[in-house]
Structure formats: C-alpha cells, structure tokens
C-alpha cells in the first residue's frame, strides 16, 4: 500500500504543483524558493512539502545557505529535492518488473543487442508518428511526454534528461538497456532537423543527451 499512499498524496493540486516544481529543479529547493516558484504562501508550501517528504516523494536536508558557520551564520534552511525512489502500483497486482528482468537477462546472455536496438528504433518511429519536432522546446516537450524530464542547457543547444524511464533495468543491464534507450530516442527523433542523440552517461541523469542544431552546424 506504500506506493498507493505516496501517489494519493499528489491528489491535492497545490501539493502536486509543489512536487512538480521541486522535481523540475537541478538543485535542492528551500521553502521560500518553492513558495515563490509556485505562487503559494510560505507556510502553506512548508506544510505540503513536509507531507511530500513524509510520503517518500521528496528527500530533505538542512544546510545554511550563507555558507558560513558559527554565531551569526543563521539557522540552517530545510531543503527539498525529488526522491530517487520509484513509485508505481496497479490493481490488481501485476509483476511486469520480474518479466522485464528475465527478458533482459536472456537478451543479454544471447547477445541480442543489435536486434533489441532495431526493435527500439521501430518503436520510436511508431510512437513519433508523422510529426517532426521543430526546435529545442518542441523536442523537450516530446521527451517530457515520454517521462524523461528534459532540461534545456546552453541556450537550448543541449537537452539533458533528469529521468530514465528504464532506470531499474539500466542499473542491472547497463550496456543492453542504455543501447536500447539510445536507439529508441533515435527513432523518436528521426527526421527532426539538426538533432542528434548520443551517449553521455552522468550520475543522476539519463545515459543519453540530445544536441540540437547549435551543436550540429558542421
């Protein structure tokens, strides 16, 4: 029931807005920042942020934002960031995770990387349909719809993704699943002018990065 309880916490619209704001940041967020970013009162933001933390959706830490210590440094601020834990549920219970683990284990043992990547490209093309995203914002919107939580950097020249939809599998079978993920995105963005997907694994981020036309002029 823990996953159901955690997801139920997001039914409150203010709480959900605060969660989405914190999750979209690439750094810890204070109560003041969350309140200003979502347009709610600080006391209300603090109440809902602590509810989200209690449900396991946010993680917290206390730190002095001034960087000083000792007398006169001020009280530590409570900071929030999205929790790394994954929450999901289905009714009645389904065990897709075990099936995915077993299929990945067999595919890796049989060295079916190339076949899996080609299937992923086909799936990406099918999900893309006839549309072609134009511009970094449109690409980011398409990626957001797939759950990647994209973040535009370098004035839109680079799009990094804060979430990997296949995170649990990629931890167990990194070459197999990251190669599949890259191929899926290649198919999804195929035909989008001036867009290139490449591997660029960094801690806490998706193993792929999207570069737009500003990095692909040559």
TrEMBL record:
Extract the InterPro entries matched here.
Answer: ArsR-like_HTH, WH-like_DNA-bd_sf, WH_DNA-bd_sf
Alphabetically ordered keywords of this record: Coiled coil
Give the superkingdom in one word.
Bacteria
Q: Which residues form a coiled coil?
A: 102-129
* Name recorded for this polypeptide: Helix-turn-helix domain-containing protein
Organism listed in the record: Actinomadura fulvescens
Q: Lineage from the top down?
A: Bacteria, Bacillati, Actinomycetota, Actinomycetes, Streptosporangiales
């Amino acid at each position: 029931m823990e996953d159901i309880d955690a997801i139920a916490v997001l039914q409150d619209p203010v709480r959900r807005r605060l969660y989405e704001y914190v999750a979209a940041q690439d750094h810890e967020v204070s109560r003041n920042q969350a309140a200003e970013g979502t347009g709610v009162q600080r006391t209300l933001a603090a109440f809902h942020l602590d509810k989200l933390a209690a449900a396991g959706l946010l993680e917290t830490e206390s730190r002095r934002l001034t960087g000083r210590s000792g007398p006169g440094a001020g009280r530590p601020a409570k900071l929030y960031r999205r929790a790394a834990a994954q929450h999901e549920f289905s009714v009645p219970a389904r065990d897709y995770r075990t099936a995915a683990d077993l299929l990945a284990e067999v595919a890796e043992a049989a060295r079916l990387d190339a076949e899996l990547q080609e299937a992923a490209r086909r799936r990406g093309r099918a999900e893309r349909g006839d549309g072609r995203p134009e511009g970094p914002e449109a690409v980011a919107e398409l990626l957001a719809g797939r759950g990647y939580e994209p973040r535009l950097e370098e004035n839109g020249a680079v799009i990094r993704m804060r979430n990997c939809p296949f995170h649990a599998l990629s931890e167990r079978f990194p070459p197999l699943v990251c190669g599949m993920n890259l191929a899926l995105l290649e198919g999804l963005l195929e035909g989008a002018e001036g867009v290139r997907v490449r591997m660029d694994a960094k801690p806490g981020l998706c193993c792929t990065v999207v570069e737009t036309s500003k990095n692909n002029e040559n």
